[in-house]
Amino acid sequence: MPQVADPDIAGLVRSEVENRWPDGVSDLDEIARYGLVPFGKMMGPWLLVRSSLAVGGELEPVLPAAVAVECVQVGAMMHDDIIDDDPQRRSKPAAYSVFGRSAATVGGDGLFFHGFAALSECQEAGVPATRVSRALGVLAHTGLRIGNAALKEVRMSHRICSTAAYFDMIRDKSGALLWMACGLGATLSGADQRHAEALGEYSDLLGIGYQIRDDLMAYDGTRAGKPNVSDIRNSRPTLPVLLAHRDASPEHQHRIERILADTTSPIADRREAMTELVHEYGAVRSARETSHDYARLAAKALDPLPPSEHKNALIDLTVPGNLA
Predict the structure, then answer these.
(1) Angle, CA of 118, 123 and 125, to the nearest 5°
(2) Per-residue pLDDT averaged across 69-84, rounded?
């Protein structure tokens, strides 16, 4: 996915991060900086700021929260890389490859707590204490959603599941991270219930569309700074696989099931076999169309928000070319 943060927002958040974790820090902060720098898409901070401004908020008071969402997202990715045994992230070695699994696990935990600490600073920046308190609840609930999704994904591996179970899992896997950003922006800026719910629905739907697009990378040749064989290696039943299985002949259904259950054949062989089946049944095209459908639903969810350039920016993110 392309960089979505405009230069002003990106520059402000980067400056905040550099001030907190300057070059040369040690111990836990060294691992935090390694995960945060160089910066990724900055999608979370961008969504938080745009959501805040779309409901009448101001930029400066929510900047610490923008740092918080980046911390939580990077911490979650550190843990994902360990669980999935993915050696690369953001076109560089994953944190566990550099610091070891135990240290990277602690580093990810540390980033979560850095997120809570940064969010609490919004009160000093002028946000009412009651809003900060509610925002801390949003952040905590996000962590529970992410953890629940991670456990579901591990348990779903090596077998076919229903598409309903898959969508339920990815709503929390990726939707929760976007929900965190939009929810914090809305909560800290005093959004009314109708606008907050609209942003919540938008972020969940956009997260589903984004995750489907991410899952397609194993089969359409796209690379995004991390291995595109992770889902194959970990036997994940992603949407392209589930759609191919649904439409396949009984013989090919059994073949897909055997590939998912296989943990000993070379990864390249498994990827080649699954890619052939996914393309044979048009599952890449179907999954991409489903991703676009969810993006369109996300845009529609923003209808209750008042007209503004910030609402338009959130809608622009749902355009298929931007989601891809």
Answers:
(1) 85
(2) 95
